[in-house]
Design a protein that fits this description.
By secondary structure, this protein is of the alpha/beta class. Helices cover 42% and strands 22% of the residues. Strands 3-2-1-4-5-7-6 form a seven-stranded mixed β-sheet, sandwiched between helices. α1 packs parallel to α5. The longest helix has 15 residues. The relative contact order is 0.14. The model has no long low-confidence stretch (mean pLDDT 97). Bound molecules: ligand 77K and magnesium ion.
């Protein structure tokens, strides 16, 4: 096939979504993934949970790891107050290129910074790059074996504050067992599991929401 799946998803957005209307971009992607070609966006069912967690957190500083085609970046950013920015990290340049165009079609390009590169390299530079201290909200949706090392890196870089919320996609499918074991046994977090389904399927999946409680000692026995 000459085009890639992200390119075909972008074409569906350009054809079917109203420029400057984030909700129509979301609907166009969900329609494409339900009726034409599955893609690994968080989707509508888990997306509604993401929306509710973003709204209850009402964050000032937001980090997303794993942009893919920009679907969750559009979902999150459409809910943010005018002065708030989303920083989203994508290691795949082809995905980043499509994501920037999807985000632009939604009219949210001034509120989103798509960073190309490895999360492990970029996280230590974030405070300096963006003049921030901590992230109020972090969404984990990148390589599943990077969730644990990257949450540890965020801690080590003091990028989490008391009350920061970390939401992780796919903790059941494909699954992130080492991350779940760590975050659920760590006294510095209060975690809650939201049962759902893998995007556009009946396969079980879920989201794990973890609130950082500040730096306490020890582990739960
Ligand atoms: C290539 N790449 C760039 N970023 C990433 C990180 N994301 C995932 O890997 C990811 C994978 C799946 C998934 C794939 C196949 C399957 F059979 C079941 C589930 C679902 C998701 O929601 C994901 O976020 C992968
Ligand atoms: Mg995912």
């Amino acid at each position: 096939t000459r085009t890639t799946r992200p390119q075909r998803l972008l074409r569906a957005v350009i054809i079917n979504a109203v420029r400057g209307d984030p909700d129509s971009v979301i609907r166009a992607i969900d329609h494409f993934c339900k009726h034409t070609e599955w893609a690994m966006n968080i989707g509508d069912e888990k997306g509604a949970i993401l929306d509710s967690v973003v709204m209850e957190t009402s964050p000032s500083t937001v980090l997303e790891l794993g942009t893919y085609c920009g679907y969750s970046a559009v979902r999150i950013t459409r809910l943010l107050p005018p002065s708030t920015r989303l920083i989203t990290v994508e290691m795949n340049p082809d995905y980043a290129c499509v994501a920037r165009q999807v985000i632009q079609h939604a009219g949210l390009q001034d509120k989103v910074c798509v960073l190309e590169g490895q999360s492990a390299d970029l996280i230590p530079k974030m405070a300096e790059m963006f003049g921030i201290q901590t992230f109020d909200f972090v969404f984990l949706d990148h390589w599943k074996d990077r969730y644990l090392p990257d949450i540890r890196l965020l801690e080590d870089c003091s990028l989490l504050a008391q009350g920061s919320v970390v939401l992780a996609d796919n903790v059941v499918c494909p699954g992130t067992p080492d991350y779940l074991n760590y975050i659920r046994s760590n006294l510095n977090y209060r975690s809650r599991f939201y049962q759902a389904h893998l995007e556009y399927t009946r396969v079980l999946d879920g989201l794990e929401k973890s609130e950082y409680l500040g730096c306490r000692q020890g582990k739960r026995q």
